[in-house]
Design goal:
Structural class: mainly beta
Number of helices: 2
Distance between the termini: 11 Å
Radius of gyration: 16 Å
Strand order of the largest sheet: 4-3-7-6-5
Shape: globular
Strand content: over 45%
Number of strands: 9
Helix content: under 10%
Length: 111
Amino acid sequence: MAMYSGEATLTFVDFEIVESILFDTSEVKNKRRIVVEINAQKRELHYSDLLVDFEVLKDEVLNKEGNYLFHRFDGTTSKKYNSDFGYWVIKYKKLIMEWDELIDKAWFEER
C-alpha cells in the first residue's frame, strides 16, 4: 500500500542526471483541458531548477546496466514553473530514502 510520508530525503550514491524535462504550459492559451504531452512545450531544464519543490507522483526503474540503475521520476514542479509536470532520469548505484514518519495512506489509496 502506498503511504504518505510528508517530506523525505533521497540520497543517490555515485549518480548522474541523464535527463531533466519540463512540460511548459506557459504558452498554452484558451484551453480548458491541457494534454501535457500534446499541448505543452517539452524543454530541457537544468535539474537544479527542476527539482526545487518537485513533488514526485510516479517513479519507475527503467533498466539496469552493470552496477547502475536508471530511474525516472515524474511529478509536478514549483510554482515558479506554474506547477507544470516534468520528469527526470537519474543513473545511480545506490539510493537511500529517509523520512520521519508515515503519516497516512496515499491520497489515491482507499481511506
